[in-house]
Amino acid sequence: VSVVDLLVFIALAVGLRGPMGHAGISAAVAGSSFVQMLLLWIAARRKLGGVEGAEIGGSVARTLAASVIGGAMGWGSARLLSEHGTLLPGLVAGLAFVVGFGVAAVDLVVPTPDKENAVFLARQNLDLRDDDADFPALYVANYILGGGAGLDSRLGNRLRQKEGLSYGAGSGVSAPSIDRTGTWSVYAIAAPQNMAKVEAGFKEEVTRALKDGFTAEELANAKSGIMQQRLQNRAQDGTLAGAWTSLLHLGRTFAFTKAFEDKLATLTVDDVNAALRKHIDLSKVTIVKAGAFK
Does the first or last residue of the chain, that is N or C, have fewer Cβ atoms within 10 Å of its Cβ? Predict the structure, then answer.
């Protein structure tokens, strides 16, 4: 598959570079990626005997539609930029990003008949950067829900400690420093026969957090746990060097880190609950379950 993908890319790049310029290279990447996806889908069907073709096809169609709209808006932005200055194209480009990034959520089941364990994955795209004012609050909300609190997190406690459904469960939030392409994700590992209960438990805990919010005790424990982790990490030479490299690349210093931690220290329960409700929406969460389901 990789060899075919490479050959397709070379052929498209050579053929499109002349008429389209540097945009031809981007088109070649898109075209070869589509071929790779198609070949992997065919291989998966042959090996597994079925991979929810209708669901995947629907997702591909929605993504393609969003991409066409985004591409058209991008093309229009370029035309407007050359004719009418920068304000209107910037607005159009922003709208194109929102349309392209807001791909509809799907629910997929991937059969893996040769595996004893099943995997549950959930993810939501977020319009988020690490310098957003409410990112520290969302970071804490995720910590309480399923992040660094481990088995003391709500998801860990519900799915493993209380109900014994999952061998491990947790969540994570990612906020880039440049692009507004954040993500919130959840994982759980369980026996295939328990996957329906895992999914139900996940949805119930997220719904409860959105409806009732977190407690002052949970917030205090989260603040303490997060700061301990960050201090321990900075005690490691390799982690410290990596942090400096990243900060310098972004034109920042550890003053940025301090500002994040200062904001974290002053967060209230209302701040954390508001951030969770602003960013997390179960209707926008894509869920993938892989296992030997009967």
Answer: C
